[in-house]
Kinesin-like protein
Amino acid sequence: MAEKICVAVRLRPPVSQSQSQDQDTSSATFWRVEDNRISLHKLHGTPIPGISYAFDYVFDETCSNAKVYELLTKDVIHAAVDGFNGTAFAYGQTSSGKTFTMNGSPNDPGIIHRAVNDVFRKIQMISDREFLIRVSYMEIYNEEINDLFAVENQKLQIHESLERGIFVAGLREEIVNNADQVIKLLESGEVNRHFGETNMNARSSRSHTIFRMVIESKGIDSRSSGDYSSSDAIRVSVLNLVDLAGSERIAKTGAGGVRLKEGKYINKSLMVLGNVINKLSNGAKQRAHIPYRDSKLTRILQTALGGNAKTSIICTLAPEEVHVEETKGTLLFASRAKRITNCAQVNEILTDAALLKRQQLEIEELRRKLQGSRSEVLEQEILKLRNDMLKYELEREKLEMELEEERKSHKEREQCIRDQQLKIENLSSLVSDGDRSSSQDSMKESPKDECNYRGDDFKTPCFKAAGNAFVAKRSNNSQLPHFSPLPDSFSNVADEDTWFKMNKGYIADLDLLQTTPARKVQSFPPQDITPDCSNDNYKEELQNLKRQLELAIKEKNELERKHEEEIQLNGRLMGEIAELKQELDVNNNLLETSKERYGSLEREFQLLKEERDSLQKSVSESSQKLTFVTDQKENILKDLNSEVQRRKDLEAEIKQFSVAFASRQRSLASIHGEFKSKMEKLRAENPVPLHKSLQY
Ligand code: ADP
Ligand code: MG
């Protein structure tokens, strides 16, 4: 669905010092922000007609990065997680607040930090898809692409393939699984950017930085987990967060030498960006050719501009009077950008181009296993292995590209050598012919048959005698119109017409310009050579040709030497590729062994788990028994206590009995004693015969 690019402008707070510098207060102006409109006013309040612009958002100096993110960028970021390409970039003159907006401050993090956090927060909430996120960070400085994650990766080339679209070959990518990791990487990238730099500000205002996240995702099929059919579509989206170079005119950055070169390049990138935006804003009828290829920046941002992407642009403005002209330029740029329509759609691919797919079979299974055992250390190890694999893949890809380039230039050189040889043969035959003809003084013959010289236009003579057609090959570069340096009066960076006029309609193809091998273009002395040439002229011409022959031989030797070197280089590159392949094999083996190790660990873990479960079961059984026994013991104890009590009671009773018994005994004994004494007394009173008494 076609939709407009979202454009906002942001006015930064004034730097107090520069306000006091305004001397001519009669012409003093200020920018007024009302809702989504910004307009230039005279100091006493009257608006200046014609300088009033409306945008999707206009943020005044009190606005925080949080608000900018929330209103302008959040949707682009969320859409990127859902599979739409996204780009957010900051445009504006140096010191207007681009870096503040993108990177922010510790109290108010910028768009990049917020985007990174948001991406990870969002993917955590999506439970039915799995994600793979890679990040890269590059800088375009003097039209050269440098890797900010790997200082050794410099002057990288842009390539295009059907599967991967436009990409920077050899750029380091890191797989990441949390926001902190990304922030750390970004910090290391910043350190790399400072590496060997004496004047950081100068560089940062002249270079563009692009932070890139590639978000791949795949639906999790709960029914057949572990079964990766080749028809699974994987969503791949690219998110670019771009801090552009300062958009100020070159006249301001001034000076010559290196700075001018930088200025020219930076200006070129931004100028092409301006051109692209101009053309796109002119609507469908003029969209025939958009000069994306004219600069590295526009090439990389190609999909973001008028293509398959959701894009938001924030144009930062410096409010000071001294910057009014620049600010007007920025507003013009912003209002053109506002007219661009993009057509974003979810990118689903079925091929192996998605990294997720390529790595999935080997690693995903491992990861799932690990999720079961929740081992963070092992997760880290897996991440490292994945990153290593990616690194090797990128390295191999880079070498392959280099080899391809080498092959191309090798072929070109071979062709060149063949041309040269042909030329030499022709020249030799010409020289021998010339010697012959001068000795025979055959110059009286009609020269029109032999030569076709015109005063202003050198044409190759027809060497019928040599039997070989001679083809003069001019370098492509020599046919280009003169590339004029940018004049100081150049008024607007984004002025496509001036650029067009300056270059006589020629649209430079940077890649072409840079990859064309340097060839010496030989020229003949600028003399008028008429068809009726005299003998002297002819001799001179012969001399020239001889000189040229010598030059050509020299050049041929040089080319042969270079060719030899190329062959050696090719050999070396092949060797390196073989080494890398070996390394990759080793790495794969390593991966295999660690996979096995994880497998055995997992099995051990399973066994231990089972053992623990059975132990737990027996422990619970024993504890049940124990409770039962304890209950029984308590009951018995209770019984025992009552028995003891009963025994005590019985003992007390027995005691009472024995006391009673003893007293009875005692009373019986006393009764018996009494009875005995009474009997004694009676016997004594009535003595009876013994037998009677015995009877009794
Ligand atoms: P640029 O990247 O466009 O060259 P910077 O982002 O470096 O500009 O901003 C220049 C200065 O202005 C910095 O010191 C920055 O902290 C400050 N600044 C820019 N925008 C704001 C803002 N919205 N609020 C507060 N300070 C800002
Ligand atoms: Mg900056």
